[in-house]
Amino acid sequence: MKFDKEKITMLTAYDFTTAKMVDAGGVDSILVGDSAANVMAGHETTLPITLDQMIYHTQCVVRGVDRALVVADLPFGTYQSNPEKALESAVRMMKEGGAHAIKIEGGAEIEDSIRKIVNAGIPVMAHLGLTPQSIYQFGTYKVRAKEDAEAEKLLSDARLVEELGCFALVLEKIPAGLAKKVTESISIPTIGIGAGADCDGQVLVYHDMVGMNKGFSPKFLRRYLDLHSEITGAVSRYVSDVKTADFPNQNESY
Ligand code: KIV
């Protein structure tokens, strides 16, 4: 798709019913993101979610998907310490979760883990830029790699992950110009989120793009629905119908 200049589409999903709808909508790839920690479990960061929980979400998604490529995040702490542990986590995600590929955050720091997982025949998607599992090191969710030194490291990490055999690279919240440079410098596809229009594809968190998260409005987000208002409106109509004994009516009773 990169060579054909066909843009790649990716959305997150964490459950069977959503995965079914996202798949039916024609998305190329579904990410079972560790953003599940935020949008499904209500945590402030992605750090608390466990491998068992990510495997459960992945199993649910895989059951709903007929055609899209399912990529699952390895959560924080399951691949950084050593390559053996990284491979073990990746194998569990593929074997028990049923994922088609895994995603991990970082470049040179996790080089040995990436190599080990790729060598076991597991497709790896890399993730650079704003990597939320490092949020306590960054201290902020602001745009990354605005300064030359960080931009150069990111470019060199992008080349490295390609060399190591990663099949794609997520670029999160970096300047559009840098994302363009990275995209033109490597042959594997880049999938951007807050990384401008020149990436080979785009990814958004499903709950954000359908407007379920009222409080989250970063500049990069385009909302396609206002589901928060739709759902709270529907719930309050239901509450009112039950309270006034309008629901259920005769046609809705046996
Ligand atoms: O977990 C996630 O949803 C992600 C995307 C933001 C790329 O990693």
Structure overview:
It contains ten helices and eight strands. With 254 residues, the chain is of the alpha/beta class. The chain has two domains: 216 residues, Phosphoenolpyruvate-binding domains (TIM Barrel, Alpha-Beta Barrel); 29 residues, no CATH class. Strands 1-2-3-4-5-6-7-8 form an eight-stranded parallel barrel, surrounded by six helices. Helix 1 crosses helix 3, helix 4 crosses helix 5 and helix 7 runs parallel beside helix 8. The radius of gyration is 20 Å and the shape is globular. Bound molecules: 3-methyl-2-oxobutanoic acid.
CATH topology of the largest domain: TIM Barrel
Low-confidence stretches: none
> Helical content, roughly?
40-55%
What CATH architecture label of the largest domain applies? Alpha-Beta Barrel
Query: Numbering strands along the chain, what is their spatial order in the largest sheet?
Result: 1-2-3-4-5-6-7-8
Number of helices: 10
Which molecules are bound besides the chains? 3-methyl-2-oxobutanoic acid
| Rg, Cα atoms, Å | 20 Å
* Overall mean confidence score, pLDDT: 98
Summarize the structure.
This protein is α/β, with parallel strands linked by helices. The protein has 10 helices and 8 strands.
